[in-house]
Amino acid sequence: MSSCALCELSSQDILWQDDFCRIVLLNDADYPAYCRVELLAHIKEMTDLPPAERSRTMKVVFAVEAAMRETIQPDKINLASLGNKTPHMHWHVIPRFEGDKHFPNSHWGEPTRDSEVPPLTKAVRDQLQRVVAERVECALEG
Question: Which helix (H) or strand (E) holds 21?
């Protein structure tokens, strides 16, 4: 079996982690605050998880979405779980703005315009991390 990038220690900016999953900030120049929720175990599909772990995964994904909405107020948030290239369960949480280079299309498609999105400031990145942690902890308590 070939190595799996998501099974390795992440070189990305980790916003939150427990023994089940981690939330990484991808530092995408076109999509600041683009996060990925990565399961730590090498699981290929959501239906490979027991129901309680499926629910836990989605609680984390939704908590990241809520934190992102609160912190950076995007026009839309895209959620995606593909795994075609990396068959290891992970969810993309992608903030979208009407002026981004792909809107209203998928950010994986061809650009529709030139766009320069300002990078996250350290203050906003730190606020995002704080709010992500608060929302995830609250979601997992209930």
Answer: strand 21-25
